[in-house]
Amino acid sequence: MFHLLISSMRPAQWTKNLLVFAAIIFSQNFFNVIMLLKVVVAFFLFCILSGSVYIINDLIDIEHDRRHPKKSKRPIASGMLKSPFAATTATVLVIISIVLSFFLNTSFGFVTSIYFLLQMAYSFWLRNIIILDVFAISAGFVLRAIGGAEVISVPISSWLLICTTLLALFLALSKRRHELTLLGSDASLHRKNLREYSNLLLDQMISVVTSSTVIAYALYTLSSETVSKFKTDSLKYTIPFVLFGILRYLYLIYQRNEGGSPERILLTDKPLIINIILYVLAVGLILYL
After folding, report:
1. How far, in Å, CA of 159 to CA of 83, rounded?
2. What sign does the dihedral 105-107-110-115 (CA atoms) show?
3. Gap between the Cα atoms of 262 and 133, Å rounded
4. Are 155 and 225 in contact (CB under 8 A)?
5. pTM of the complete model
6. What's the Cα-to-Cα distance from 185 to each of 172, 182, 198, 265, rounded to whole Å?
7. Which residue has the higher pLDDT, 89 or 267?
């Protein structure tokens, strides 16, 4: 039973919560032990909260998931995990994670509360509204980044918010395109607003967002604010890693028909994993050495 519950919390998707570390890295406080411990705790609290939200989503979507070629195999949709037990557990975990978030840092507690409310609004309403659905998904990523800054009480960079928003939109639109391609004519039966999307429209949106992401990041590395803060303009040398990562992801979307599960790609695609590791090492060397 326990392993079915953990599976429903989708631990692979917890990689998204690594965004809480962005603020401590770019504020040059990564080696501040107290701050780092706070961010680590914040990461685990976000994992518990987001995992609980996934359980709630599976309960809400149980009938739709049973008609989905892949989601029908999930513990709740398949009937292996009983709905009453899953609902009770998710409720308890949500309460625990939010209460502990307030104990950790009041502002962080408000961020996790807003995140949960946003996810509920998405599950019951926003996911059925074209364009707003992907913005809601993007906002979830942004709140993770904001939470990482609030928990250690450092200023939230406007550039961090812009780049996170654009990158999250890219991932969300890619996910929609994959769903549309995978489900074909049955797409609208699984998700109502998919009838409003088309491959052409999504391709145009992805094109706009990918270009904007690269330009925004490039401007961030070259801005006088960034150079003044870090006393160097060397962050510009990390632009190729960002560009390669986006181009690699586009290759996986259009040539491999992937993109429906960003967390799986991040855990399995070796070129992308190596690129991310090199990017993190490059940023670390530039900011700390």
Report:
1. 42
2. negative
3. 17
4. no
5. 0.89
6. 21, 9, 11, 25
7. 89
Kindly state the average pLDDT of the residues 190-210. Answer: 85
Distance in angstroms (rounded) separating the CA atoms of residues 60 and 58 = 5
H-only helix segments in 105-238: 106-124, 132-150, 158-183, 187-190, 199-222, 224-230
DSSP code of residue 271 = H
Q: Which of 137, 150, 140, 135 is nearest to 114 (CA)?
A: 140
Token readout for 104 is 């950790």
Contact yes or no for 90/56 (Cβ under 8 A): yes
C-alpha to C-alpha distance for 83 and 90, rounded to whole angstroms:
10
Q: Is residue 47 within 8 Å of 13, Cβ to Cβ?
A: no
Are 246 and 170 contacting, i.e. CB atoms less than 8 angstroms apart? yes
Residue in this structure with the two tokens 């855990």, named with its chain if needed: 267
First to last CA, the chain: 48
Token representation of residue 120: 């509920």
C-alpha angle 37-14-40 in degrees, rounded to nearest 5: 0
> Which segment of 18-27, 71-80, 114-123, 174-183 scores lowest on mean pLDDT?
71-80
Q: Indicate the residue type of 56.
A: I
Query: pLDDT averaged over the chain?
Result: 89
Q: Looking at residue 20, what DSSP letter applies?
A: G
What amino acid is encoded at 6 in this protein? I
Q: Percentage helix, strand, coil, to 5, in the chain?
A: 85, 0, 15
Under a CB-based contact definition with an 8 Å cutoff, are residues 148 and 22 in contact? Answer: yes
Identify whether the C-beta of residue 81 lies closer than 8 Å to the C-beta of residue 75.
yes
